[in-house]
Amino acid sequence: MASDIKAMSAELARDPSSLVFLDLGEALRRRGQIDAAVRVVVGGLEQNPDMVEGHDLYARILVDQGDLARAEQMWNRVLERSPQHQGAHKGLGFLAYRMGDLGAALEHLELALAADPTDQAVVRALKMVRNTVQELEVGAEAAGGDDPIFAGLEGAEDGLLLVDDRGRVLGGRVTGAGGAEVSEAVAAFLAGAAQEAERTARMLDLGDWRWLVAEGPEGNVYVTPPTGETLLLILRDRSVPSGRLAMLAERAGHVARRWLEEQEL
Amino acid sequence: MTTQFQRLLDGVTQVRGVQGAMLVAAEDGLVVAESLMEGVRGNAVAALAASLYKRFRQAMEAAAAGTPHFLHLQGEGGTLITVPAPDAILVVAVGVPDMNVGLVRLEMLRAAEMVG
Amino acid sequence: MTQARAVEPWTLEPLERFVAESGARLTLLMTPAGQVLAQYGFTRAVDVMSAAALGAAIVASTGEIARMLQEREFALLNHQGVQHGIFLGAFETPRGRLLALVVYGPDSSVGLVQLFFEELVRGLVAAAPVEEQPQAVLAANFEEELNRSLASLFGQ
């Protein structure tokens, strides 16, 4: 290896315009002789300013030096001259991944793979980025997307709420005007309203209360007790008729009962 | 005045299955006018329907669904429907579990319009 | 947590049920002379005694006006304020005539208070021990009676 470097250095000394500066610069970079690599590449690019492989190599050396911004500039310059340059796409894919821009990383790596489908490093990088994207999507769903109780039900992400008889949220979510979450406030008022529904039904000889429907200017609400100690609320816009609310409530009630049984096990 | 109010309630009570209709002071829960079958406790219906409406209105407003213009409580043995009218009045109807809610609703909305 | 307290224990259960159902914030059960039988919601003895005296005086005054108008006595009185309502009701029991003074807030209504007041009366009539006769409050034992009542009403 050292003899190769010596030989290439001698050749470059004999002919400063030789393209051997690419191999020599890469060999020095791999040995960690970054300053020597920079001198070789800068010298070679002075002699061969349009050599895109030289700019690609220089960009990789800049990454080793930690100068990511200049490396990005360098690779973008490569792509201006050679839009399908595999090394530049690979490098920019790496930089995008480092900066958390997974979309751009995927895009560059896919272009790199298209330019050289046999590059196993690119295949591995693509796999890693795709896995990261998938993990983030799953995490986002668990944190703020479909609720674990109502996941899979129509409109599970908003307007379904399971509450205990003391007004505490067990699951689901209701958002108010401007997208702010109002689940806690709704749950608190709902518990009082349900107690009143129970008392009204009892005192007026209406039997056990089964459900309550309310229509408002901004939405229709359906409330039913899936068990003796819980309440289920479904809130939908006015276009959803009460019959459909009842069907949705039946499905959501079944899911809630199953979930509550699982919690008791 | 009460006779005029009672005429408003006749359209509601004529629907099959309705056992009584009332106008109720929303804040006080007191009877303003009533047309009830024997055995229906007017003061209890008035007080409880007004309280239920008030509590449910709070829940609806918290959910940004607005003030309810129709409230239907379904029990295994009966039905209670409440519709707000102008001047803090509620139109309230009680009936059997399978009464024609659509028709009752229409008559109650008509009565509510005429209260104002 | 506020508790109902009673000088006469038979009043306690109907009173507690009334408070739970009506949502009353304060309730006093007393004789027309202002002698307190039970209370809910008051925290100071001085407030209980003042409210009892004023409530009894209001019922006595309106009773006198009714008499002047040759009307039957007003059994129920309600004053609706902005935040609170005051309800006063008089009723007969086997222990004699009693008064209820109720203060309620916006989470209740005069309709609810009146509805459950009827149940309170039924409960008190059913619970009142019929064998005992109401005792007249004599000036001689008034102070002793008052102190005993205050001790019962505030658990002292």
Q: What is this structure's SSE topology?
A:
The complex is a heterotrimer of chains A (265), B (116) and C (156).
Chain A: H1 2-14, H2 20-30, H3 34-47, H4 52-65, H5 68-81, H6 86-98, H7 102-115, H8 120-144, E1 160-164, E2 169-173, H9 183-203, E3 209-216, E4 219-227, E5 230-236, H10 242-264
Helix pairs in contact in A: 1-2, 2-3, 2-4, 3-4, 4-5, 5-6, 6-7, 7-8
Chain B: H1 2-13, E1 18-25, E2 30-36, H2 42-62, E3 70-75, E4 78-85, E5 89-95, H3 101-115
Antiparallel strand pairs in B: 1-2, 1-5, 3-4, 4-5
Chain C: E1 4-6, H1 12-22, E2 24-30, E3 36-40, H2 45-68, E4 76-80, E5 85-93, E6 96-104, H3 110-127, H4 139-154
Helix pairs in contact in C: 1-3
Radius of gyration of chain B in whole Å, from Cα?
Answer: 13 Å
How much strand of chain C?
A: 15-25%
Class of secondary structure makeup of chain B: alpha+beta
Shape of chain B: globular
Summarize the helix and strand pattern of chain C as letters: EHEEHEEEHH
Instruction: Report how far apart the termini of chain C are.
Output: 17 Å
Oligomeric state of shown chains: heterotrimer
Helix content of chain B: 40-55%
Characterization of this structure:
The complex is a heterotrimer of chains A (265), B (116) and C (156). Chain A is of the alpha+beta class and 265 residues long. Helices cover 61% and strands 13% of the residues of chain A. Chain A has 10 helices and 5 strands; from the N terminus they run ααααααααββαβββα. By secondary structure, chain B is an alpha+beta fold. Helices cover 41% and strands 31% of the residues of chain B. In chain B, strands 2-1-5-4-3 form a 5-stranded antiparallel sheet, with helices on both faces. Chain C has 156 residues and is of the alpha+beta class. Chain C is 44% helix and 24% strand. A 6-stranded antiparallel sheet of chain C has the order 1-3-2-6-5-4, with helices on both faces. In chain C, strand 5 (85-93) and strand 6 (96-104) form a beta hairpin. Chain C is globular and about 40 Å long. Classes of the chains: A alpha+beta (265), B alpha+beta (116), C alpha+beta (156). Chains in contact: A-B, B-C. At the A-B interface, helix 9, strand 3 and strand 4 of A face helix 2, strand 3 and strand 4 of B. Strand 3 (209-216) of chain A pairs antiparallel with strand 3 (70-75) of chain B, so a sheet runs across the interface.
